[in-house]
User: Fold these one by one.
Assistant:
Number 1:
Amino acid sequence: MTATATAEPQKMQFKTELKQLLDLIIHSLYTKKEIFLRELISNAADAIDKLRFEALTNPDVLGGNSDWQIRLIPDEKAKTLTVRDNGIGMSRDQVVEHLGTIAKSGTKAFLENLKQAETKDRPELIGQFGVGFYASFMAAERVTVVSQSAAGGEAVRWESDGQGEYTVTPAERPEGRGTDVTLHLREDAAEFLSSWRLREIVKKYSDFIEHPVVLAEAKEAAGEAADAGKTEVKDESLNSRQAIWLKSKSDVKPEDANAFYKQLSHDYDDPAKTIHISAEGGAVEFKALLFLPAKRGLDWMSGPEKKSGIDLYVRRVLIQHECEEVVPPYLRFVKGVVDCADLPLNVSRETLQHNPVLAKVKSNLTNRVLKTLEEMRDGERDAYVAFFKEHGQYLKEGTAQEWGGKEKERLADLLLFESTNTKPGEYTTLEKYVAGMKAEQKEIHYLVGESRGMIEHSPYLEAFRERGEEVLLLVDPIDEFLASSLHSYKDKSLTAVDRAEAKSDETDEQKKQAEAYAPLLTALKDKLATDAADVRLSRRLKESAAVLVAGEGAMSAHMERLMARMGRGGEAPPAKRVLELNPDHPAVAAVKALHAADAADPRVEALGRLLYDQAVIAEGSRIADPSAFARRLNDAIVTAAGAVPVAAK
Ligand code: ADP
């Protein structure tokens, strides 16, 4: 490329997104400046891991030096703090690529997520995410990076004040391969020169980092002894570096496991559950330490892009961060470490896919996580409900995905639902629902909507309530997909109660009624043709006069609202629904009488439209023409009050 051996600094621009990010970091983001150190130490440890991994197949890259170390070098006089590693280093092109753009897709997602309400409400999520290297600018007015790639070539110096430009210059690095990140500290960040403060931060955020984090400390000998005032440099290792996941459960104090979890996940809270696994003597040997987070993390917002929260080690060597081969995607909220002694150390990342050893690890881990959840469900109800409120959507996703898979029934049994038989905030399970079904009830009923409040008084529920049949109230955005992909549970099919009525239960009396209503229904069908696909009598209504139902195969009203909100509504006009009228309702009977007396009475259409609009309101949708609705309603009020309406339509 353009790497000429000139010592002139070359000025370059940050990419736009990065400018935005830096601006946010410097001006508004972090209340906890200290986390920059966590990010830099983590980068240094990654750089060491990368080199160590490469050395498994090509030991020459080490050049004989594998004394891994991350050094913190505070300089009181220069007011700088340097984080030094002897890892893989970066070439000039890599420096430009990694420190001049946002390479990480996660950072882009982060910027997008910043705009979302959830991040605003929970600022700790931002700390959980971490913005890596750029966090340095929270504490530094200028950052210098000097790096020498393990692949050889010239060392390079990168420098920036975070204001939109940076320079790169050829440089020397007497220490050889590795990277120095030097922060020229802001005035209000002088605390990061203090050794006790650095010690405290490392303990808090980086204690389990596997490589030693060493503080090069210039000690001023105190007191009046002969050597007072003499400066001596001492090295002090700050982190305990335990591979805590290799220890047996009884040797790990819960508080240590929690501290490990926090470092791993950047979460501020303790996990809801810790799972120690030691698989020995079976088909595959491994140890794992897994955590179920108490709160839903940022991963939820990064969506399906992230597929795992579990790091894969082989005998303490990190092989892959967030390894997708050890858990199914729906368990991506589980955090932790798995260390598998049965894999060769030099396993390549490519061959991790379809690796039979990992397939066994995966099935074992999945089983253990599901078992833990089952135990919580059965033994710690409150804790399970709290867990489910945060992470239930993952289990629903799993139930939907595992179509026909062996874990499907198990996952379905882990789901919690509100129903017409539960109080708000209380839940039932499919198993309990089926156990409570009446002998004559063939199907599991459900109704999908935006919130319990909006659907629990729905006219659709009236007949079920009267028959004493429970209806599941599904209010999660994912529920519609879940219900349609779950399809059935224990041979009982799941059916939405707002679908067209399948059965025609016509007794003699009902037949007579149908005949009497036929002229009105034909008239209304004609007059409401632009809005309703059909107008017919309903047997499902008890108290309400009218309801709208989706024809078989049509999209439900809830789904349509969701699509409209996602901006997909414009592509196709909403499917017309069927207007069902309750023949036993006085309002409907009154319209019939009006039509029978004078088929041309304009009030027939006006009142028919009122019935239609009230059904639209009842299902939680918006009426197309609110002012026309108000006019018709007002006319009806005037008539009811005994005066003569101004206009009938
Ligand atoms: P992340 O580490 O999450 O990918 P960063 O912004 O912290 O994001 O770093 C961007 C990239 O810069 C890293 O992915 C890595 O390739 C490189 N990098 C950062 N610090 C170092 C270092 N100490 N040694 C080698 N490469 C580094």
Number 2:
Amino acid sequence: MSTDRKPAPPPRRLTDESPRVTVFHSDRAAARALARRIADAVAATPSLVLGLPTGRTPLALYNELASLAARGAADFSQVTTFNLDEFVGIPAEHPGSYRTFMEQHFFSLLHLAPERIHFLNGAAPDPAAECERYEQEIARAGGIDLQILGIGTNGHIGFNEPGPELDARTHRVTLRPETRRSNAALFGGDESGVPAEALSMGMGTILRARAIVLLATGASKASCVERVIHGRVTTAVPASFLQLHADVDVMVDEAAAAKLAR
Ligand code: PGA
């Protein structure tokens, strides 16, 4: 029986030097390729230390990883994780917390060892001490082997928001209005219910990871991706600092790649 379904086009590599850009025909294809890369890294180093993001973008990645784990194709039981950020002023169990998001979409599906899951505590009585504790935990784990990142439409990574300067270390941050807006869904669609502050790994914390992968999909990311790849390094686009790291992959779909030079 004939079928007119065409094979999916292969990924296109745009640059060979870090940041290496690879364009996939769909967001699903990008998520699949990144899931495979993570699974391969865990197979090679079962005790891998992974840095993880929240957001809509990594959902497809976490689904792919969960199905690899369910099929027995990946074993995350020895993996250590550090999440990038958390809201200030809400407990971990709050339905809008990033911790709850990760429990629902990743931790509970991949059977991680609870003692190897690391998270910033947004309800800590002394946020500065909490940030310092996190830096020390990362150092004690031997540093982050592979840091996965999403990107905000304003160019933020983690909650390192655009501004006149950036913090190198894990720190407390005031969220920009556009960032609170894009997180409203976690708080019943009410932007004013999104906490005004967060704790976030700093730019130096992120850049100390041995390898970094930025996943960006959808047309809303096309402008910031273009600035990250072709623009100058500037605190106005925090992700542009990834140009300073020697091992960065940027994995995008066609929509997010729309403004890149071909
Ligand atoms: P998104 O968020 O994946 O929901 O677009 C990305 C981010 O803000 O880092």
Number 3:
Amino acid sequence: MNNKTMMTENEDCVLTLTNVTKDYRQGKQNLEVLKGIDLNIRSGEVTALVGQSGSGKSTLLQIAGLLDRPSSGQICINGKDISKANDENRTGLRRDYIGFVYQYHNLLGDFNALENVMLPMLIAGQSTATAEERAAFLLNKLHLSHRLKHRPAEMSGGEQQRVAIARALANSPKLLLADEPTGNLDPNTAEDVFAALLGIIKETGLAALIATHNMELAARMSRQLRLQDGKLQDLNEPIFAKIAKNFY
Ligand code: ADP
Ligand code: MG
């Protein structure tokens, strides 16, 4: 492989984790949550992260989203090794490159939907006019143009979560991470929000890693990875296809 090919591959790579481990120390106890994770996420791919409660899905997403540091291993974002990046660089990357959707919306209660979506853009230095235009555009895409001036408490759970999705996309991230984004919603609302999320991901062509308990939702993504005993299994590989079949 020549240098040029390697460069192209790197640029393609939105997120790569190599041999990532995470231990939590509690007194004398050492809990090994991640025991050597290798993961490669590319643009246009929507990857499902499944696994039982407590298997480490949130831990993995927090590390991938630069909200926490691994105990060991490498993280490569946008083709650059950021394992040794300082806090300032990590914050900048998180703001410009990564969008995060949590299980609970985490919207600011004193601000309306439009303002909640504008905030990340204002923090990134956009003008108020540009931020407002893009926020309205994203909220419209998520079928919320009639809720722009509503505060979180004046919206339903599904609407709140769609605002949170719009906020995560505000700065046009290349990587979207979502931690059980429909986990707090009733099944019908979860379906609406999930469809809206998948639709906007496909339209923007970004890379996404979405943790979910729900194997039906997972099956609708490009590929499925399962976290078990601290390791990732690719459920699309023949050796795991049988296990995956039992889930559906
Ligand atoms: P999941 O999202 O798959 O339910 P988590 O990543 O939240 O799993 O948790 C994985 C394991 O790590 C659990 O056993 C949990 O109790 C433990 N854990 C998570 N965060 C911490 C922490 N900050 N300190 C100690 N243990 C933690
Ligand atoms: Mg979790």
Number 4:
Amino acid sequence: MLVLQVDKLRKTYSSVTAVDGISFKVEEGEVFGLLGPNGAGKTTTVEMIEGIRPIESGEVKALNVDVRKNPHKLKEMIGVQLQEGSFYDLLTIWETLDLLSSFYKRSRDLEKLIALTGLEEKKKALVGKLSGGQKQRLSLAAALVCEPLLLFLDEPTTGLDPQARRHTWRLIQQINREGKTILLTTHYMEEAERLCNRVAILDYGKIIALDTPGNLIKQLLVKGFKKKVVETEANLEDVFLDLTGHTLRE
Ligand code: ATP
């Protein structure tokens, strides 16, 4: 089943064409990655799909809802990971999630959600006192409050340590196994390779490639690509994880 259909989507800001007539589809159960250099148009695309930014031209159909015609209906059905600064510092984790769940007709069991995101020990802690990693897990929990069928994650592991990044990867895989379709943006190609069934690479507002990570790598090799430097058997991240372990810290 198609969960998302984007057709000739376009957005210009005075002289800049941020999104230049892009089209793609996302199937139910997929983790779909939107990749691209800074300024490629990822955020503009995602926010138009979410109904947050006005669509200049083109069509977006998400969960059978026409986003242009019915953005409010869509907002009840999708989960959007908010950035760190979007929460009240003086509320606890529990109060934050409880408040958010009051906005929706249906909402998830908060105890289970807090356990899923590894925040049990901190549920009575003030948001303002949380570490960056805990705030990021709160933002993931917040996106899941409404039991969304389609989840949007904008750079879900930016700024996290290697342990927290791996924890978030496992969490995203678990959420996906529960049946949620996920659209994520990332600047980490390792993350995209591990998590995404398919990726679209955006540059200057246009999709320049769209396929599974495996097929894109094969296509590069068919062109005769050879790595200039042979990959070392271990890198500094391996050293870091060997010394500090895989246990999630704060
Ligand atoms: P990043 O990886 O840095 O987050 P991005 O791929 O998400 O980048 P966008 O934020 O969508 O890219 O920006 C695409 C282009 O549109 C950029 O040239 C940006 O400067 C421009 N742009 C984005 N938002 C606005 C705005 N509100 N007003 C004017 N120009 C904008």
